[in-house]
Amino acid sequence: MSSKIRVRVANWQKDNADLRRIREAVFIAEQAVPPELEWDAEDVEAVHFLAFEGDYAIGTARLLPDGHIGRVSVLKDWRGLKVGDQLMRAAIEEAERRNLKRQLLTAQVYAIPFYERLGFKVASGEFLEAGLPHVDMVRESD
């Protein structure tokens, strides 16, 4: 099944329904993040990414102009298929294309090993964000 998964740059306006459906399912429904924390003014400025299986959007991520990668989310039924890897690689490649040599993210503590595999290093102590333990992580491109 995973061979059919592809990632593309999304358009915040045009792809809004898919982006919202995935983030609402993962962050608001599953993780109980308050909607007012999930949706912010940065969405308009960000480069968004969508992962698809066939024509069905199953994952999303965003890259901010300062190199912050965030809102990495994959629908439950597609986890464990490297969808998150593909989304992260797309975001890192786009950051590098924009000459953003440092990529930053705020990771939920359980996801640290996932981001470490992609070259990120923990850069802070633990803190709570939306009630969940997080750390800041940084990746330096050559």
From TrEMBL:
Listed EC numbers: 2.3.1.-
Residue ranges of domain N-acetyltransferase in the record: 5-142
GO MF annotation list: acyltransferase activity
Pfam families: Acetyltransf_10
PROSITE patterns given in the database record: GNAT (PS51186)
Keywords of this entry: Acyltransferase, Transferase
Name of this protein: GNAT family N-acetyltransferase
